[in-house]
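Milestone M4 deliverable, item 7.
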Amino acid sequence: MPRLSLRWWLAPLMALATFAAQAQPAADTGPAMTVEAVGPHSYYVQGLTQLGSTKNQNFISNAGFVITPQGVVVVDALGSPRLAERLTQAIRQRTDQPITHVILTHYHADHIYGLQHFKQLGAKIIAHAASREYIQSDTARLRLEASRTDLAPWINEQTRIVPADIWIDGPTSLKVGGVVFDLTPVGPSHTPEDLTVFVPSEKVLFAGDLFFNGRLPFVGQANSRQWILSLERLLAFDAKAVVPGHGAASTDPKKDIGTTRDYLRHLRQSMGEAVENFVPFEEAYDKTDWSAFEAMPMFGPANRMNAYNTYLLLEQEALSKK
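Output delivered:
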């Protein structure tokens, strides 16, 4: 019987190792995740002012957490399971208390793809019932399919959209370890299911994507009229710190929230005048003065689409009045 070489024996093992390496995400060289305190027991991590990518692991949104005597409540789940794992590791550096709840401010992809990690930990997920239509839609399915390519390996075939365990449809109070969390529906604004989370004992408000601080928002299919009204409601909370869905936490809400509000008003005014005077969108866009906002981060990727979606919205509003 011929003697078999060592390479022959090792080849299957090498192939197996290669397959295992390919099945795992690439080396975790993602962006730093820094925890910032916004209250005595309240914290958040700030996503990057970028579009989601493989390089940044889809870390483009914020998430918060509050430590109570009987558990940790997380607000939003970040944009990939790996990011949720990293957030959990950061929480573990501060407490051994279990993560008992995850409250979603809305069901956009960059805030929910980490949910399955928290679900595996046994956390209860809370969201507004208006989310159900979206998570069952082709839009959500196609977005996830595209993300499995565009954000691989952090979003892959194992990544799924996780529904809430508790659906709410009105103002709700959650108490964990004696700490009260006031959940207030404020949609349809940025999305139909927008929720704010206010922690009175901490004087901290988690505002989700109603508020983009220091950068231009993505308006999408938003109801901008209601969104502006909802921003006014944010200012009624007795909050010392407001954590937005994107950007740094604000300790001057009137000023910072006012910037998002003023931008939405400018969109509605400029595109509204164009619709009223039957000016085509491209002409209206080119003639609009964007100088107050064009230096803001994300102006390039977001502004034209924001203006176009607002133009279409105001066309619909005009038709509905006839």
